Amino acid sequence: MSRLNITSLAVKNLRRKIVRSLLLFLSVTVVTGTLFSATIFISSMQNALKIGTYRLGADVLVVPEKYAADARSALLAGEPTSFYMNRDILEKVKSVGGVKKASPQLFIKPTSFTCCYNVNAFLVAFDPTSDFTITPWLEKNLKKPLSGNEVITGRGMPVMAGDQISFFGTLFKVVGTMEPTGIKFFDQSIFMTMDAAYKMAEDSKTKSMQPISLSKDEISTVLVRVEEGIAPDRVAIRIEHDVDGVRAMASDEVISTVRKQLMGLLKGILIISALLWILSLLMMGFVFYMIVNERQRELGLLRSMGARKKHVFGLIITEAVIISGLGGIAGLISGSAILMIFKDAILQHLKLPYLLPQMTFLVELVLGAVIFSLLTGILSSLFPAVLASNMEPYEAIRKGE
Amino acid sequence: MIKVNDLIKSYSIDGQKFWAVDNVSLAIGKGDMTSIVGHSGSGKTTLLSLIGGLTKPDSGSIVVDKENLLAMSDNELSTFRNRKISFIYQFSSLIPTLTVLENVILPTVFGKQQPDGVAYARELLAIVGLENKMKVYPSQLSGGQQRRVAIARAFINAPELVLADEPTGDLDEETEEEMIGLFSSMNKNKGVTFLVVTHSTELAKRLGRQFKMHNGRIEEII
Ligand SMILES: Nc1ncnc2c1ncn2[C@@H]1O[C@H](COP(=O)(O)OP(=O)(O)O)[C@@H](O)[C@H]1O
Ligand SMILES: [Mg+2]
């Protein structure tokens, strides 16, 4: 025979009205699940934004005025796009005060892989002599510059070093793949030199069914690193003032627009969660009030057998803690499942990369969620439990029917 | 064992005050077996509840086993009940979620748990003739069987005082006789004091002194 104590009494009580117990359990599951998945989701977005700009390595991004929005979605979501402006903008940007380094890049949106894949690849060409964002990676991992028709690819591409792929009729050799970043702009891109890109464009007129209209004096963007101690957004303003027809985005600004959208989303989720929480608190409180009412006589009988107030109080709280604890754990599991199932759909919609938060944060979050759900149980049953433990035994027994 | 003086308990119903227990004084010695009779509504249950410390009087004093109940804190009173006083109710008082055996050992949960609690519970259940119903739930028992479980439970913590409210109300004669036998042997062998509300003349006859309640007042029948 299992030992009889307050906990086992509580468990037996919960099993008595199993549907009601399940209902309470589910409400805690929903609230905890919602809050948990929302928090993970939002924090991973913010993480992605931070890492995105960090890896990008540029303080200011100069793009044609008309294509500011495209550029933003290209960098943040890896949305393939092509837009061009005149190369003399590079020189003009270089001469703006506060600019330390400036390097051009070309974005080319391929129609499709010529061989067989149908992947959303994105061609990025950089200038090895002035580049400061991709070259450091090459130096570290490849230990030699890219030459001729060599490319390196993002980790998301279905190719390996040594493979050959062709774009617009030109055959390229894959010499390396980058580390996974979680950022589509890097993971889905193929990096080549500007020279190779111009040659490919030239050759596409004869070799490809879909020629690229790109001339040697066109570039897509200028990446800028600012002088130390100068705020990127100040430099961006100066560039826009000094150079006609461009939009200069400080990396912070790129993020802040997205962050604004995120904050809106966050607010919405928080409001919904708070409402859900209050609702489930009220519901649980009401149900436990009912439970106490319904079991008045039993609780009075326990008191007459020598149960102290704290025993009765503990019994009610224990029931709530068991339900909300289990609900919290189920919320964690279902929240994670929902995140995994809908991750791609949500990301598609928001055009954002996705990165899991750090392990320590995850652990904190899981612990927080469990404590939160336990708190929900305790809080909602507190008043009924106090009520129950303060009933006069004789009154409770007499009125309990 | 019990010393009650000038006990008054009143209730207001619709602004109208009436006395459920009206100036009751009573002294019952250790090891006495006493019965109380009286019409329903005469205050018998209220008096038992006062003596058991389940409710407080308007005025008067209650001393049980030399302890002034009215001076005790709620915790002290709970412990006192747990160790010394048992109730047998006139209604079904088993916990439906617990088996028969669990119901009998339930009072031990709130006190110092004795290692042989389960063994003693089995013994008591055997005495009331339910040794083969230990794993059964109350809803699967007849009213009389449930009453026997409640009686077995009353003895689990080796009480000094048993306050019984119509304990044999729904028992057949034969079983009633067995329960009276159990009360007598507990009284003789363990010195348990009994205060029993009953309509059964059979039971009243077997107990010692007899009191009668009427409109909250009490008198001894000689
Ligand atoms: N908590 C209470 N509130 C109002 N009236 C009560 C309460 N408890 C008992 N009474 C009344 O006191 C009287 C005595 O009740 P009770 O002691 O149960 O009588 P008995 O057990 O002799 O039938 C009854 O009229 C009953 O309705
Ligand atoms: Mg009564």
Give the count of helical stretches of chain B.
7
Content-based structural category of chain A: alpha+beta
Q: Provide the succession of SSEs of chain B.
A: EEEHEEHEHHHEHEHEE
Query: What is the mean predicted local confidence, pLDDT of chain B?
Result: 91
Residue share in helix of chain B = 25-40%
Order of strands, widest sheet of chain B: 6-7-8-3-9-10
Shape-level CATH architecture of chain B = 3-Layer(aba) Sandwich
Oligomer: heterodimer
Radius of gyration of chain A from CA coordinates: 31 Å
Helical coverage of chain A, percent range: 55-70%
Task: List the bound ligands.
Answer: adenosine-5'-diphosphate, magnesium ion
Number of strands of chain A: 11
Spatial separation of the terminal alpha carbons of chain A: 31 Å
What is the topology, as strand order, of the major beta sheet of chain A?
Answer: 6-7-5-8-4-3-10-1-11
> How many distinct folded domains of chain B?
1
Largest interface: A-B, 27 and 33 residues
> What's the end-to-end separation of chain B, in Å?
21 Å
Gyration radius of chain B, rounded: 17 Å
Total domains of chain A: 2
Low-confidence stretches of chain B: none
Structure description:
The complex is a heterodimer of chains A (401) and B (222). Chain A is α+β, with helices and mostly antiparallel strands and 401 residues long. Chain A contains 13 helices and 11 strands. In chain A, 59% of the residues lie in helices and 14% in strands. A 9-stranded mixed beta sheet of chain A has the order 6-7-5-8-4-3-10-1-11. A two-stranded antiparallel ribbon of chain A has the order 2-9. With 222 residues, chain B is α/β, with parallel strands linked by helices. Chain B has one domain (2-221): P-loop containing nucleotide triphosphate hydrolases (Rossmann fold, 3-Layer(aba) Sandwich). In chain B, 32% of the residues lie in helices and 29% in strands. In chain B, the strands form 2 sheets. In chain B, strands 6-7-8-3-9-10 form a 6-stranded mixed beta sheet, sandwiched between helices. Chain B has a 4-stranded antiparallel beta sheet with strand order 2-1-4-5. In chain B, helix 4 packs across helix 5 (143-154). The radius of gyration of chain B is 17 Å and the shape is globular. Chains A and B meet through helix 1, helix 10 and helix 13 of A and helix 2 and helix 3 of B. Magnesium ion (MG) is lined by residues 44-45, 90, 165 of chain B.
